[in-house]
Design brief:
heterodimer, A: alpha+beta, Ubiquitin-like (UB roll), DNA polymerase, domain 1, 36% helix, B: Uridine Diphospho-n-acetylenolpyruvylglucosamine Reductase, domain 2, Uridine Diphospho-n-acetylenolpyruvylglucosamine Reductase, domain 3, Enolase-like, domain 1, 3 domains, 5-stranded antiparallel β-sheet, 12 helices, 34% helix, 25% strand, globular, binds flavin-adenine dinucleotide, binds FE2/S2 (inorganic) cluster
Chain lengths: 161, 296
Amino acid sequence: MTQISVRVDGASYADDVEPRTLLVHYLREQLGKVGTVVGCDTSNCGACTVHLDGESVKSCTVLAVQADGSEVTTIEGIAEGGELHPMQRAFHEKHGLQCGYCTPGMIMASIDLLKNNPNPSEAEIREGIEGNLCRCTGYVNIVRAVQQAAGEMSSTAGAQA
Amino acid sequence: MKPPAFEYEAPSTVEDAARLLADGGDDAKLLAGGQSLIPLLNLRFAAPSLLIDLNGVLELAHINEAAGELRIGALVRHSAVAGHALVAERHPLLAEALGYVAHPQIRNRGTIGGTTAHSDPAAEVPVVLLMSDARVIAHSTRGQREIAVDDLFVSIFTTSLEPDEIITEVIIPDRHVEPGTITGSSFQEFARRHGDYAIGGGAAIVELDAEGICRNARVGLLGAGMRPEESKAAAAVLENSTLAEDTVREAARVATAEINPLGNVHGDVQYRREVIREMTFRAVMTAANKAKAGTA
Ligand SMILES: Cc1cc2nc3c(=O)[nH]c(=O)nc-3n(C[C@H](O)[C@H](O)[C@H](O)COP(=O)(O)OP(=O)(O)OC[C@H]3O[C@@H](n4cnc5c(N)ncnc54)[C@H](O)[C@@H]3O)c2cc1C
Ligand code: FES
Ligand code: FES
């Protein structure tokens, strides 16, 4: 067992983990943050995407011990005071999901995409989320959702500036 | 638990990592970005007794230039290499190739040292390193040595590193450019989905003089066999020509005449050879057009 201390969605945790514990399993099984899901656990599908120190990563191929001293943000930590994150709201309004299994990862990947490129073209959105597989939607409404969120987030950023 | 049990160490210096690796014996393994190794653990295709995590070894996370060479620490992530101004300026082919490596989340974790040590003939970065006369520094408790990547890549997933050696740096010399010439480069590959490992690919660096004559050419092949490949024979066809379409087709044919790509369900040997030939043709044509337009 190894002691780790991490901040997850704004709260601090200190826990003992076996070194082989995957970050996604630590989040789900030890912290009860089941919003982050497992699809493939081989870094292929993107369902488990979280932000590790602000960058999107697949939490099935990061060990929990590697998050020691880091800041992790999951799908459960992006709404503020009961208000959905603009990306969450856009997925809802544009019907960017059907079964919803890919959605937590899609949203986390899309937020990282907009951080690096606030006004992506459709092609750039498709490339930016290419590490995330959706077996239901055919991606069309997912792309629309990201476009809506991009428009909204850049206009509020503009208003704040 | 998905992975098998292992001991875990997170050293903060190269010295400590090297000692752990030397003491750890055959079953100790280095962990860098984990984007190849952790899936293998999750599938239980690998079962190391000890994992030595390099992610805390901050002395491996630099990119700098010295004496006409770019030195990239082994732990620099794919996304950081691709986005670095010195890489864009000196080695645009490396930045372009990284755009084909996996997906954004994987590029945020995967490292240049990891993809070099992994020695996958389907990996883009090793091909570019070969075409760039790159070297690595291999460090162990016994000392350190430089290895030209041509000597490093032995076969699929096999390098000439000793079991106790760590790649600490990848060194890419600035290209020697003849005065009055303009260089263009291009990486082309075909995959069923962008970001997947390619079925095959080709890469080219060409140097054109004021008369439009090719003074220097390098041609690399992705997925052409057991290791990253470069075709000197194709380069010889291109050099001293004007890179007319027929000449470039001939060079691509020469480059792929004797290769033996690994066939599988996504494409048999003959199909892959043809894909690599076409991608090589496109890479040289695109590189030539970029040189003519002066856009590197
Ligand atoms: C879905 C998916 C798609 C991918 N697609 C591509 C692709 O299209 N093209 C491509 O090139 N790659 C692809 N990759 C692989 C990715 O680029 C990996 O990041 C890379 O191959 C390994 O780098 P790493 O830092 O993650 O190494 P790790 O996985 O940590 O290690 C890989 C191996 O190298 C050894 N090693 C690591 N660092 C060192 C070092 N400094 N010295 C000595 N040995 C070391 C490890 O012990 C291990 O054996 C893909 C991966 C996934 C999961
Ligand atoms: S569960 Fe992590 S990428 Fe599929
Ligand atoms: S909504 Fe079902 S997998 Fe995407």
